[in-house]
């Protein structure tokens, strides 16, 4: 709750809060509260739930509250611990930015939303915070809204997130219809209503599971809804590090782990397959990117694919484990990249060069100028690649090992997934090595322009958090045994029963293979990028394919954007010709009808009246002569009548 | 043999001729003449029937009265025609139509 | 013989009347009226009403007709001129409506007379049976005088007063207004 107050206060203070102290204070307090008051008591203990009545709909009450169990307190702690360094880093990184008070406002808002998401007690509340997190991400991606690309990017992110949110909502609706409650405790707790509802009628289960997965897909950037994440790099790097590396994208995985009992075989398999495809495609795309941040974005997508596979094969504890470790080293990678970009931007401004400060091809040999950054980034890269003595080694290999065990358990074609994961690990090592080598090794491209002492390391406000995070990347953070993940204290508390048995050989074979593979990949990378023996030509078709992200964006553009435009044009034409045409026809017909009616009225109706008048006039004209003052005619008429009278009498 | 019918027929003819004169003539004096003819026809009628009335002699008495009345009518009629002429400067009854509405 | 005379008188009366209404010239028409009146008097004789016939000649011909002729002859020149200028032709065209009306009346009268006299009314039959119909040898004048003085005295007096009134009135009407 504390960050929310921070958000409100900064919104009120406006321009005065450029120093960001309030945001910083709130986040520090949050971390302390979450660690001491929340994490320690609840970890390994009994879950705590606190509820408050929110509203009632037609006799069914809905609650808002706080739920604390192992999963939620772990997430909460991760969010707090990642947010803290980012806040400190941002103070230095975002200095002199004109919109900095807005930045602190949005950052606090995001932290509030994320923390709220992690401790939600019901699906409805979780959905509310889910939406808020998406909204905060939209605000932060489009932070520099004067840039056209930033505006497009945040629009894209929000729309794709929306698609996922529809899935989430459908899932909630299905669960509510069949189980009668959206409260997480009631659903999945020991006395949960979920299982009986499933046993009663489980036909809706697949649909609900897929719907929830759709939500997670959009939030965690799975294939094919991953296109928003590379474009989200338009935001500030510190934002990217917090949101798109560690926390928001992990919300999807967190959701899946929370509602894990919901999934049946079909859904789990779907999750695993999609996660696998995501991991593979993102790794391939990362190979061809030239922008530092885009490489890191694809790396995030790839690692999220790993986590999804972890969920899909049934061991969501390894997925959570990987999430925790990934948060640290990815955040560090982003912060270090931010430091590099910061320096390159300075360089560009000083020399007035027309270069992109984020482009890899403009860098090289920065090891000499930014040593601390170099060391931190190396540690993070080692963690990402999965070298021993790092947390990344433990978590990533845990997933791959579990995948192989699962594959062996099911046999046959299912072995494709673990194999792919292994290949992706090698690719991961390759691309992160590429990043490292191209940035820090070799010769600086603009060395001739360089003045003495111009490129220097980042200030302490930036390097401090980086060092802290680097320390967390090493193995003591999660386990006291460097090689065996089962002994990790983090992992051990999630008592997850998997359907497959552990295969002991895998535990030793797989990590060995992966480590050797990673070393080999780095060796190849060294040869290619540092020693400059690059075998492929610059315009190789595969490289271009990877650079252009598999032409995915173009495909989406064609399909959805152009399709919608065509549809709107078609509908407009329909409306213009058919609907308006119909109206115009009716009006023309009515006009004709009115003309006919007028003719009829004039000639028939008026004619009839005129006829009667004319007849009367004519008759009167005739009879007028009765009274003409002529004596003899008077006499004549009178006698005529007399004759007629007499004739009548005679005839009678 | 002169029966009653002969007299009546002659009377009818004279009467109708007189009627025609009254209706069709454009001269006021001729209208008077027509009236005279009609009265004469009526008198003839009276006289024809008086043959069968020996006790009262009603027909002949009334015939005499009718002759006197006819004479008086002619006198007054002429006086009126004179005055009408003085007023309208014409004796064509078709030109004297002030009686109409 | 008697019948022939009767038809002669009747024809003379009717023809003169017809001519009377056809002629345009008023003066000549008045003279034809003279003939008509004489013929009528003759017809009265055939109805055994001798006194009425004589009275007719005396009063009608000698009074009314003379009055008409004098009135016509002694009137203003303009009146005469107006009367004489009506038409050049001798005969006037009959007015069709009046003609048809007259013929209708004639037809009606003739029909009714013939239909009526087919069966004589009873008073006539009774009179004939009683023998109280007039005969040629009756003394009409004496009886008429007696009737005038006894039975019909009142109408006689009234008629005379009436006649006086009419004459005074006519004289007054036709007096030229001296004080105008």
UniProtKB/TrEMBL annotation, chain C:
Record's bilayer topology term: Multi-pass membrane protein
GO CC term (a single one): plasma membrane
Keyword presence, Cell membrane: yes
Segments passing through the bilayer: 6-23, 30-47, 53-75, 96-116, 152-173
Cross-referenced Pfam families: Oxidored_q3
Record-listed E.C. numbers: 7.1.1.-
GO molecular function, one term: quinone binding
Record's catalysed reaction(s): a quinone + NADH + 5 H(+)(in) = a quinol + NAD(+) + 4 H(+)(out)
InterPro entries per UniProt: NADH_UbQ/plastoQ_OxRdtase_su6, Nuo/plastoQ_OxRdtase_6_NuoJ
Keywords: Cell membrane, Membrane, NAD, Quinone, Transmembrane, Transmembrane helix
Family stated for the protein in its record: Belongs to the complex I subunit 6 family.
Described function: NDH-1 shuttles electrons from NADH, via FMN and iron-sulfur (Fe-S) centers, to quinones in the respiratory chain. Couples the redox reaction to proton translocation (for every two electrons transferred, four hydrogen ions are translocated across the cytoplasmic membrane), and thus conserves the redox energy in a proton gradient.
Protein name, as recorded: NADH-quinone oxidoreductase subunit J
Species per Swiss-Prot/TrEMBL record: Sphingobacterium allocomposti
